[in-house]
Amino acid sequence: MSEKSKTAMQDSQDKNRLKTKLTRRQTLGLGAAALASGALGAASTARAQMMDHSGHNMHGSHAGHGMGGHGRGGMKKAMVRGKPGVYSYPRGNPFYARSVDNWDGWEPGQPGKHYTPVVVPNGATLPYKIVDGVKVFHMVVEEFVHEFAPGLKAIVWGYNRQFSGPVIEAVEGDRIRIYVTNKLNTKTSVHWHGLLLPSGMDGVGGLSQRKIRPGETYKYEWTLNQYGTFMYHSHTDTMTQEGMGLVGMFVVHPRKETEKRPDRDFVLLLGEYDIRPGTYRPDPNVFSGYNTLTFNGNCFPGTEPLVAKYGDKVRIRIGNLSAMNHHPVHLHGHAFEIVETDGGIIPPERRHPETSVLVSVGQTRAVEFVADNPGDWAMHCHMTHHTMNQMGHGIPNTIGIDSRKLDQQMASLLPAYMTMGKTGMGEMAKHSAHMQMPENSIPMMGMQGPKDYIAMGGLFTVFKVRQDITSYEDPGWYNDPEGTVATVASRHDLRRDGIKV
Ligand SMILES: [Cu+2]
Fold it and tell me: Domain 129-385 adopts which CATH fold?
């Protein structure tokens, strides 16, 4: 079908095409040689490259056409749309991440051969089977109970009883068919966020398709004509349905290697839910005050660590389908580059170093770096309220007060009374471990760490880098080399350095 797509770009943007090719070449990282030879030279080199790339094109005739033909009077031609019933791959945007120029006729991408499978902490990828060269997936939308962290469960909606949904993983050029069975008692639909596909496959209930009725199974099918980090989510009554958990990530690997593959390719989806202590359902109707913030549907201490070997090339793909909050995700001990967004690949020469990446609602960001610093490194949202669990926001500020008198007076009325939060929430978290907690609730934050109580919750996890591991199982806490842990200053230290305390 795609040989017809060549009609799609007989448009009026020849000038842009030159630019497009340059940018696209940069995007693809095809090397600087052609760039140095100037725009026209670069354009023809790009075209040659594309013809080379499309060597797998079954039909042959397509090679070089879609983007090629600069200076052939295209300025005068109006945009020609595909014929009715024929889908034309989008070709106008230089940022689309593509490693080939034609997407039909490829064998289904295989793990190991075409890609290094992603790692999904607290989750898994969606299984598929291959039927006549098509990758076939099946997602079942239903209600089930999910445990967000030890002690905190809620009735959620999700895909295939996974929360957040299983990661769909495929390869550019794969023909995919995704069945969606609706076992909810309300209508739904699935939108494929960031993916270039026919409008009718876009999953917006009422706009792109009729909504999926309870009990129905819908079929989505298209050919992946890009690679990158994308998402999927309900696009019917989204406030309720995303708020109940109908969200997931969608990763497409390049057909041809564009840059060295990462050794560890992690996928994390950020989420937020409102589960008030004592209740068993997220409340999707709230506007703010989300108290359960999650990496892949789990809040610390329920988050699985990300494990890498020293020297590994690491990619972390982060999507955000929270209801209302953007999350600046900060990694300790390393700097990274933001290499792609859900819109495409950032050309290498435009990347810059960061230690935090802001992932706004409805965005994905992929970062890359070399794990060159052994240790246990915190990775967390830097919004301090987002590393707390089930925090009430109506708490009086008692920091710094001396509550001894009040506690004595109150004790005569309420024997177990204790004013909380005088030294901050960290102490409160610890206390709550010994207190009677409301039903279905967890401490606002924390777990016992190797050196003390870790007063964090929500969007917090640990990135573990090790020199001498043979598997990526959780290696336990880091064994620090002697002399590399902060300790109490000795009297000798203080005297030597003239520190008066
Ligand atoms: Cu946040």
Answer: Immunoglobulin-like (2.60.40)
